[in-house]
Design goal:
CATH architecture of the largest domain: Alpha-Beta Complex
Oligomer: single chain
Largest sheet: 9 strands, mixed
Order of helices and strands: EHEHEHEEHEEEHHEHHHHH
Number of domains: 2
């Protein structure tokens, strides 16, 4: 296979001392190493900054900086602000950039497979594997939309990131990014065979009340259709703890932001989201099958011979279906 695209990694962290070394060691063992890894510490009090700094002393491609906006641990805007600060610290512009959490484990071939995907599909905009979390001493798939790259480990083609205007400083940033990308003709590839272990459950650092309230705010920002919001509320009532209440708080967050006419994401991304939601409104979640991007020869798990896959007529830009996320 031809030379793989270059990449840089940005990791916003806050109090990740328990798991950070696991993530660092996984990155060090990559068969396709990043040009630079920027760790942005947002006011950790548990020694995370010192642990990351020790790695930076040993490896000149690792940079550790302190966030300019330290505060309480939150999802959404603070994470994006830290990511954007990391972008400004990159020494060179890579082909793609990765937003990576500090509590993950991934195999040594992870970024080689991601890079190979960008290499094959010139319109690949967002790429990533699937994330598993630990429940009752068993690793289970983190229940997300199966066409969406998990926010813990998202890789963006740099041109795509520029095209969508960067990441949005809001709850819902890791959903609206993909809608904005697809609205502009970029493909989103979830590599189902590429597994990542997430050692801290999504949103576990926040009390359930705040987490569901912010989720409601995020759905408003993304521009959810009311019908899709009702569907999501019902799902949260069934699967979240505590039962019923989580869905109610989510709906309240959405309604409040609607009432005060809070700002929303850019129009093209919202229009893409609403069009996709309209298409799946009457489908059961288990049979949700909107069009999705297809890689030639099925994907990197099948590209182990070293020979590049044969492209369809017209190449990936002309033939890839539009993903739905």
């Amino acid at each position: 296979m031809s030379e793989l695209p270059s990449y840089a990694v940005i990791t916003p962290v806050k109090d990740e001392a328990r798991h950070f070394e696991r993530t660092a060691e996984a990155l060090l063992t990559q068969t396709h190493r990043p040009l630079q890894w920027v760790v942005v510490d947002d006011g950790s009090s548990d020694g995370t900054f010192d642990i990351a700094s020790r790695y930076a002393v040993k490896h000149n491609w690792i940079t550790v900086i302190r966030s300019r906006a330290s505060g309480r641990r939150e999802r959404g805007a603070p994470i994006v602000r830290a990511f954007n600060q990391g972008l400004t610290s990159l020494k060179t512009r890579p082909d793609f950039v990765v937003k990576l959490d500090g509590d993950l484990f991934f195999p040594a071939h992870y970024f080689a497979w991601v890079a190979a995907t960008f290499n094959i599909d010139v319109r690949a905009g967002v790429v990533g594997g699937t994330v598993f979390i630990n429940q009752d001493d068993e690793w289970v798939y983190d229940q997300m939309n199966h066409r969406t790259v998990h926010g813990a480990i998202k890789s963006y083609k740099y041109d795509c990131l520029d095209d969508i205007g960067g990441l949005h400083e809001s709850m819902g940033w890791d959903g609206i990014d993909e809608f904005g990308a697809r609205a502009r003709g970029w493909n989103v590839h979830v590599l189902s065979e590429l597994h990542v272990l997430h050692y801290k459950t999504r949103g576990s650092a926040q009390p359930w009340l705040r987490a569901r309230w912010e989720e409601g705010r995020g759905t408003h920002y993304m521009g959810y259709r009311v019908s899709a919001m009702v569907r999501r509320t019902g799902y949260r009532m069934l699967v979240e703890h505590p039962p019923i209440l989580g869905g109610i708080v989510l709906a309240m967050g959405f309604c409040w932001r609607s009432f005060i006419r809070a700002p929303q994401a850019e129009p093209r991304a919202r229009q893409q989201l609403r069009a996709e939601q309209r298409g799946i409104l009457f489908q059961r979640p288990a049979t949700d099958r909107s069009p999705r991007s297809r890689l030639p020869d099925r994907g990197p798990a099948y590209w182990l011979t070293g020979a590049e896959p044969a492209l369809p007529d017209g190449g990936p830009a002309a033939s890839s279906e539009t993903a739905a996320g």
